[in-house]
Amino acid sequence: MVAVSERGNETGRVPCVKVLEPGWNTVRVLGVCAGMGPVLTCPWGICIDTDGNVLVADWGEQHRILLYPAQGVGWPIITQGLSSPRGLSLLPDGQLAVSDSMHHCIKIYQYKASQD
């Protein structure tokens, strides 16, 4: 799978993340409906874990990291301590690296795909 972000523009497009399957068909559109999780304001960094969960750095208004599970409704997993998160990477040891552009650093968080 591949995920791409659309940050929206003046022509009325809504910020979202599109998840594409190998034939380039869109299989999911994330961040546009509050009933399916947080609405995105400015998605930037994206990564997909081995279970198909999509993580999104949303740096627009709320400076947060969101998790959209492969099945079900998404939720914020990091909501404090970031200022303009731009890039995401899942590390081999299970941690999540987040580039924090306004703090000029990379922050490392323990990652787990549950609400425990």
TrEMBL record:
Keywords: Repeat
Keyword Cell membrane: no
Domain of life of the organism encoding this protein: Eukaryota
InterPro entries in the record: 6-blade_b-propeller_TolB-like, NHL_repeat, TRIM-NHL_E3_ligases
Signal peptide start-end: none
NHL repeat start and end residues: 35-71, 79-112
Single Gene Ontology MF annotation: ubiquitin protein ligase activity
Gene Ontology biological process: proteasome-mediated ubiquitin-dependent protein catabolic process; protein polyubiquitination
UniProt entry tagged with the keyword Transport: no
Record protein name field: NHL repeat containing 4
Species of origin: Neolamprologus brichardi
